[in-house]
Amino acid sequence: MNFLLKVVIYMTVLHGIHLLLDGLDYSTILAPVGVVLFLATVGHFADRWVLPLLGNPLSTLAGGSFMVAVIWGSQFLFPGSHVRFPVALLAGVVLGGVEYRMHRDILGRKERV
């Protein structure tokens, strides 16, 4: 469930930023889909392994930084794509905020079990 929720939220945020701001232009629909699937997969496993070790604030900071790097770096993997760094940074901050909230739910659920 965590993976599917991440896919939906990440795709919604990236698409919303693409519609609202100039600077997140991918050459094909496969590019953002690939980025979202990659981030959701890494995030799913990081929630299992990194979150319990580092706690919510450090995990969120590390995850948000990783997301910025992947979103910005994706322009080099997909020819014809253009991603401005400030836009990638904004996407990472928004996704980091979403992750912080999701981490609180995950950690709260583990304490109750």
UniProtKB/TrEMBL annotation:
Superkingdom of origin: Bacteria
Keywords of this entry: Membrane, Transmembrane, Transmembrane helix
Membrane-spanning ranges: 29-46, 58-77, 83-102
Protein name per its UniProtKB record: 4 TMS phage holin, superfamily IV
Species for this entry: Kroppenstedtia eburnea
